[in-house]
Amino acid sequence: MQRRNLGKAMRYLVAVCALVSSLALFACGDGGGGGGQTFNVNTTVPATANTVAALQGQALTIPNGTVFNAAIGNNPVTLTFNTPTTFTLARGTTTATGTVAYGSCTFTVTASTFAAGTGPQVGNTVTFPTCTITVSASNVEQGGAQVSGTLTLVLSGATGSASSSPVTVNVFISETGELFVVNLTTGATVDMNTNITNTGIVGTGR
User: Fold this and answer.
1) Is 28 exposed, middle or buried (0-12, 13-18, 19+ CB in 10 A)?
2) How far apart are CA 182 and CA 169, in angstroms?
3) What is the pTM for the complete model shown?
4) Helices (H) then strands (E): counts for the chain
5) What CA–CA distance (Å, rounded) separates 205 from 39?
6) Over 80: is that where the pLDDT of 145 sits?
7) Of residues 85, 66, 87, the one with CA closest to residue 77
8) DSSP, residue by residue, 143-170
9) Of 171, 162, 175, 161, nearest to 135 (Cα)?
């Protein structure tokens, strides 16, 4: 009788252990996701030498070249950050290159193929007190995988205001809520120096 009861008790114990193990696996697995809140990101951060690395190497179309030089007129130009602190401004095959300083974004021309009276010349500077990057992406899970998003450069100063065409990047949010962008041209992972959980953006939950 004692042997039969012992065997029955052992079978119960094995069954309970199997049930506990399966529940533990279910709780830890979470379907393969990060397990965090999901956010629709639409946030603006200051353009700095750190955050502009997210745009480096990408040709940004600026629809109104007047913001860089009145002689260009209301014609599109492309702006490329060759490095976070150097740039090329192009209209067709004509270019101006130079340096960028931050606080306000100040572009200083150090070389130019624009003919006099048609565009930026060596020594010209243009400053944009408003110089920001807008990050947009949908359904970004905190602590989860990268999702496709866009970056837009916004410039505004005495010469006018302009927003670039959006460029495609990958976006993710760390487990601690920090917003990161992956530059698809350079492969660099860039901390955008903002914490999504502190921005007031409402997540969609899980």
Assistant:
1) exposed
2) 6
3) 0.80
4) 1, 13
5) 8
6) yes
7) 66
8) TS--EEEEEEEEEEETTEEEEPPPEEEE
9) 171
